[in-house]
Design brief:
The complex is a heterodimer.
Chain A (H helix, E strand, L loop, with lengths): L17 H14 L17 E6 L5 H12 L3 E6 L11 H9 L5 E6 L4 H8 L3 E7 L5 H15 L6 E5 L6 H12 L3 E5 L15 E3 L2 H5 L4 E4 L15 H8 L3 H4 L7 E3 L12 H4 L6 H24 L2
Parallel strand pairs in A: 1-2, 1-3, 3-4, 5-6, 5-8, 6-7, 8-9
Helix pairs in contact in A: 1-5, 1-11, 2-11, 3-4, 5-6, 5-11
Chain B lengths: L2 E8 L1 H17 L5 E6 L3 H16 L3 E6 L31 E9 L3 H11 L6 E9 L11 E5 L7 E5 L1 H4 L3 E7 L1
Parallel strand pairs in B: 2-3, 2-4, 4-5, 5-6
Antiparallel strand pairs in B: 1-8, 7-8
Chain lengths: 311, 180
């Protein structure tokens, strides 16, 4: 268990206490200012090595972690699956042991397998940050979502957040459900029955099959990407039909609160889950999510470093 | 370590007089592009008071900023708990060509000021930087000195100086504490 003001790892939000979530959000708010300076760098993590180990594709998250590390003066090293020994058949444990032999302080891991970061945390002496494990969790994305909502609404408690799309395959949805319900958010999930896991209501969310009802009175609508890479069978007939029944357009958005926020973890399928006028409209905070992501990840790296260096 | 009060070093009136004198000394430098930057947390209300005094009485227009030095400390990861990082605000986002007075409540080892200087330099190249403190309690560990000082205090390393300001603690006074 990490001491106050530190994190031993960030594996997911399921087991992270509410106070620690709030602490990360509070720190992240303060890191934003650094990203607006002309010289966007502070010396805090000088001499620390951060490995970005991405065994699954990513653009935004990997760059966001890399920029976050660099702005804190850490040495960040990128390592992606393609072109690495990992692609040549090395096991996760062997790769991890080899990484550990280079004495990194923090390893950021994205992996297609649920629990891969938890496994790494047991076998490697480094702080592990989960950057997405299969369809399980993506804690930094959920934290930056909460940060963005709190920034606009001034609070999280009591807000109504509708998450719409492929809930079953979404690690973003799962992390957001874990985090937001802990902080008193009323979470609604909505999607075709083929994309809603059975028993999801046990996580404390309300289930909707009709997007109009899910969006009605919502403070935030979070649209998820249709993840074609995670499923072989089609879960819906075609893009046009999905868009008709579960896409967010201006007419549907009018059912939400007047100051509704539209969010998307990216990359979005324009015209499928999100109509262009909504994606680019005044409700959209999609690019703010990306900016906040850097500050949030700086906070996570800082808190992990605090734990290791104060030992 | 339990600390008990040994002496009241300054009461509200003494603090007021000290800040008036410091403001006058700053004004005597005839600054042109003055920026007062308070160091979190104690320096921030002091910088505000100096700013108000300069504007209202001496007619010196200054910009007001604040700096949090947590991320620049040489002991950032020594000694827990980690504080929540404070706000850094530099007017117009640049100190290029500015005349800067850095403001803090207590000057002790000089390490906080060293960190604050590093933070300031990240916002450009000031024409000069001077240091104003309410209390100088000695025991420097770096070659740093203050340009404007409210009171100089003889202390031992075992003692602690506690500056209480109305904006934070509800009253103005400076206490000298020592081990119980």
């Amino acid at each position: 268990m990490a001491m106050h003001g530190t994190l031993d790892h960030l594996l997911g939000l399921e087991l992270l206490p509410a106070e620690q979530i709030v602490e990360i959000l509070d720190q992240a708010d303060k890191f934003k200012e650094i990203n607006q300076r002309k010289i966007k760098k502070v010396p805090t993590l000088r001499g620390l090595t951060v490995i970005n180990f991405f065994a699954e594709n990513s653009t935004r998250t990997r760059m966001s972690f890399e920029i976050a590390g660099k702005r804190l003066s850490a040495d960040t090293v990128n390592f992606s699956a393609s072109g690495s020994s990992f692609a040549k058949g090395e096991t996760l444990l062997d790769t991890a042991k080899n990484l550990a032999a280079m004495h990194p302080d923090i390893i950021i891991l994205r992996h297609a397998m649920t629990g891969a970061p938890h496994f790494l945390a047991k076998h490697v002496d480094a702080a592990i940050v989960n950057a997405g494990d299969g369809a399980h969790e993506h804690p930094t994305q959920a934290l930056l979502d909460m940060m963005t909502i709190r920034e606009h609404k001034g609070r999280l408690k009591g807000l109504v957040v509708a998450i719409v799309g492929d809930i079953t395959n979404s690690r973003v949805a799962r992390s957001n459900i874990f985090g937001m319900t802990k902080l008193g958010v009323e979470v609604r999930v909505c999607g075709p029955a083929t994309m809603l896991p059975i028993g999801i209501e046990r996580l404390g969310v309300e289930v909707f099959h009709d997007i109009d009802r899910a969006v009605t009175g919502a403070d935030v609508v979070m649209m998820l990407r249709i993840q074609k890479e995670r499923t072989s069978d089609p879960l819906f007939p075609n893009d046009r039909e999905y868009s008709r029944f579960f896409g967010l357009n201006a007419r549907r958005l009018a059912l939400a609160k007047q100051d509704v926020l539209v969010m998307h973890p990216g990359p979005m399928n324009r015209g499928v889950e999100l109509a262009s006028d909504v994606a680019d409209g005044p409700w959209s905070v999609i690019l703010e999510q990306v900016s906040n992501g850097v500050a949030l990840r700086m906070a996570v790296l800082y808190l992990c470093a605090a734990q290791r260096l104060s030992e | 370590m339990v600390l008990k009060e040994k002496a009241i070093v300054m009461e509200a009136e003494a603090i007021r007089q000290a800040l008036i004198r410091i403001a006058d000394e700053i004004a005597a430098q005839r600054p042109e592009e003055l920026v007062l930057v308070g160091i979190h947390t104690g320096g921030v209300p002091l910088a505000r008071r100096l700013h108000a005094r300069l504007r209202e009485v001496t007619g010196v227009e200054a910009a007001l900023g604040m700096v949090d030095i947590t991320l620049y400390r040489d002991d950032v990861f020594v000694g827990l708990p980690q504080p929540i990082i404070g706000e850094t605000v530099i007017p117009e986002g640049t100190l290029n060509g500015k005349q800067v007075v850095l403001v803090d409540d207590v000057l002790y080892t000089g390490r906080t000021v060293r960190a604050a200087l590093d933070a300031l330099i990240d916002f450009g190249r000031p024409r000069w930087v001077k240091l104003a403190v309410l209390v100088d309690r000695g025991h420097r560990e770096l070659p740093i000195r203050a340009d404007f000082v409210g009171v100089t205090l003889e202390t031992t390393r075992q003692q602690s100086v506690n500056v209480q300001l109305e904006e934070v603690s509800g009253q103005d006074r400076v206490l000298l504490l020592e081990q119980a």
